[in-house]
Amino acid sequence: MLSQEFRDPRLDGVVIxxxxxxxxxSQAQVGFVLMGDDPGGIRAKVAGRRLDKLASMIxxxxxxxxxxxxxxxLHFSLDANRDDLVRLDALLREVGDELKVAPLASASDAxxxxxxx
Length: 117
Known about the structure:
Layout lengths: L1 H5 L7 E8 L5 E8 L7 H25 L6 E6 L3 H20 L16
């Protein structure tokens, strides 16, 4: 929803990582991270402020999608596990780059079922 419906460049790279909804469904804590480089966390702060401003609009779009009369009030916060996710993102990009450089073996090179050799 964030990338397709809001199309706000301040939200580029925002990934929702967790949600915790109160039992009465009145409030929800929403964790997010910002993928990519963010020296000093400036982009994350800007994204957090933008998410806070959009919270009521996001909430109104979520209610019908979730089949609720009223969606919970949304409270966004930067996920504490950001560093782990950024490290994982970097590793996945590295693996992707390596796969581009070293193509996988073609299907004709793969062993056939029943081959013993």
